[in-house]
């Protein structure tokens, strides 16, 4: 199956299960547009028209939209990543809203949380927001020595070498999966709504014992100036991914909105914004 087909199937599900036309204004508008912003409405319509799939009619809430966006995006990544198994072999798992303490780099946080749970002095000094639950988590299972020695006898339990790495199941009586990626899904970006993605990213960076996982965000926000509030800058998020970047760019060009087009090009050329189709390949690095 081609990537284009998988991307189209992703959009077909989003159109059927999430995108709705709201009618609480003089004109209808897609439910990922800002009713108070004409440019947002125009660009959202441009994306919907270019996707060209049938929209559902079931009434859904904003919270439901967000949950379905997470689920559909997680399923898309899993399907595409399976086609990259020869490039990134391993046993991979896809989760939603699982505590990061479930993974090797953050397993110590469960112990820390238990310590401060009933200790007000520690709680006031250290805080309580260590164990976050990102929208989508991708974990890799550690491996048995037989798998490591598949081509040659590289390692042995009788030797003293490589006994501390979490990559070997043999090194732990309670091996945890290794967190490979944390993905924040934002159906839209309004005011500071997306900033908790940065907070989560800093938590993942500062509180780890081991390597930093991929830390990214996925959004359907139609206004590049709002995407910039999350995408600009470095040091926390690896990159932001748009669910329909090509369609958005065409919609902006058609609207002849120079301000939004300039911002979009700056984000793309500055390597801060990519299409959803890029994400599985970036996760394979």
Task: Tell me what you see in this structure.
The protein is α/β, with parallel strands linked by helices and 285 residues long. It has a domain at 62-141 and 177-283: Rossmann fold, CATH 3.40.50.10010. It has eleven helices and eight strands. It has a six-stranded mixed beta sheet, sandwiched between helices. Helix 8 (224-231) runs parallel beside helix 10 (258-269). The chain starts with a helix and ends with a helix.
Protein traits:
single chain; globular; alpha/beta; six-stranded mixed β-sheet; Rossmann fold; 285 residues
In short:
The protein is of the alpha/beta class and 285 residues long. The protein is built from 11 helices and 8 strands.
Distance between the termini: 22 Å
Report on the biggest sheet. 6 strands, mixed
Arithmetic mean of pLDDT: 92
Number of helices: 11
Listing every helix as H and every strand as E from the N terminus to the C terminus, the arrangement reads HEEHHEHHEHEHEHEHHEH
Q: Radius of gyration in whole Å, from Cα? A: 21 Å
**What is the H level of CATH, i.e. the homologous superfamily of the domain at 62-141 and 177-283?**
Type-2 restriction enzyme NgoMIV
Strand runs, count: 8
CATH class of the domain at 62-141 and 177-283: Alpha Beta
Which fold does the CATH topology of the domain at 62-141 and 177-283 refer to?
Rossmann fold
